[in-house]
Automatic annotation (TrEMBL):
It is an enzyme of class 4 (lyase). This is ADP-dependent (S)-NAD(P)H-hydrate dehydratase. InterPro entries: Carbohydrate_kinase_pred_CS, CARKD, Ribokinase-like. Its EC number is 4.2.1.136. The gene is nnrD. NCBIfam families: yjeF_cterm (TIGR00196). Keywords: ATP-binding, Kinase, Lyase, NAD, NADP, Nucleotide-binding, Transferase.
Length: 287
């Protein structure tokens, strides 16, 4: 049974901020960024995590990328994190309540940083290079995953981690039922929440919850097919995890708000616009 993703009243209520709360009540998201000249994707994710309401967001980059990022960031904080050892040290701070990595990370840095991020047993979003880096050894990745990890592949990344399931999707003519079965199987196999992106985005949990956000027909948002839109989604989900949302709720609410931001902007949108559209989306929801 596949349920449609909707923004329920409890989720809407959880998105608002209590009048007497302070920033640490809303969590601290850590986003890993890539090297010089590859920083855009991480910055998009970090900005999205902050806009969706995480109290603090830090972008952790290789020391050689600090100058580039310092010139581009204000509200998002910046930390030099050279290697996995250094990341583990940062994650000793229990106030860091969620981690996102993959966008723009590069495959070698992803291979080093993913185990360090998972070691800390904090909710984690794995996207882009954090998924592709394990194409040759998926069992190494799956052996470290937990139900509070959210994997956010597009179809190309999904095929790298689950080639047989991607083949089954293709064999079924890319029909929604076949995609849903494949994502459910991927969640069961990996032990994590799996979110397969696309015009119809599917979310599955290891224990069998299955949901779809259908951005076709009246809900179409075709201008989301633009570079960096997925990096923004990863950041939104990380921000919600940092705020304490359950993994499946963070994934579903993130997809819903991302699509709504896309619809509110319409033709001409680029990835940078999506986090900036969230205040308008929240206003329309009465948040
Ligand atoms: N502004 C930026 O800095 C951006 C950086 N990006 C980063 O660039 C790196 C490479 O990511 P890419 O996803 O571009 O490239 P990848 O090579 O990882 O994946 C793209 C490949 O997958 C295939 N594919 C199959 N189905 C697909 C689907 N539904 N959607 C997308 N691709 C599909 C494509 O044909 C292509 O061959 C990542 O680190 C990513 O985060 C991108 O996110 C784009 C924006
Ligand atoms: N035609 C479409 N209609 C609605 N949403 C789309 C469409 N194409 C892509 N998207 C959404 O846009 C985002 C694209 O992410 P992704 O493919 O990872 O791009 P990138 O790697 O460039 O960030 C996903 O959230 C996906 O669901």
């Amino acid at each position: 049974m596949i349920r449609p993703i909707a923004l329920t009243e409890p989720v809407r209520a959880a998105l608002s901020k209590r009048v007497d709360a302070h920033k640490f009540d809303h969590g601290h998201a850590l986003v890993l960024g890539g090297g010089p000249g590859r920083g855009g994707a991480g910055r998009l994710a970090a900005r999205a995590a902050l806009r969706i309401g995480a109290g603090l967001v830090t972008l952790a980059v290789p020391p050689v990328a600090v100058a580039e990022n310092a010139a581009r960031l204000d509200a998002v904080m910046l930390a030099p994190v050279p290697d996995g050892y250094s990341l583990r040290g940062m994650l000793a701070d229990p106030r860091i309540s969620a981690v996102a990595l993959g966008p723009g990370l590069g495959l070698p840095r992803a291979r080093e940083m993913v185990p360090a991020a998972l070691w800390a047993k904090r909710p984690v979003v794995l996207d882009a290079d954090a998924l592709s880096a394990f194409e040759e050894d998926t069992e190494l990745l799956f052996g470290q995953l937990r139900p509070d990890c959210v994997l956010t592949p597009h179809m190309g990344e999904f095929a790298r981690l689950f080639p047989d399931l991607a083949a089954a999707i293709r064999a079924g003519g890319d029909a929604i039922a076949g995609r849903a079965d494949a994502v459910a199987a991927a969640a069961a196999r990996s032990g994590a929440v799996v979110l397969l992106k696309g015009a119809q985005t599917i979310v599955a949990t290891p224990d069998g919850d299955l949901a779809v956000n259908d951005a076709t027909g009246a809900q179409a948002s075709p201008w989301l097919a633009t570079a960096g839109a997925g990096d923004v989604l990863a950041g939104m989900i990380a921000g919600l995890l940092a705020r304490g949302f359950a993994p499946v709720d963070a994934a579903c609410a993130g997809v819903w708000l991302h699509a709504e931001a896309g619809r509110s902007l319409g033709p001409g949108l680029i990835a940078e616009d999506l986090p900036e559209a969230l205040p308008g989306v929240f206003r329309a929801l009465g948040i």
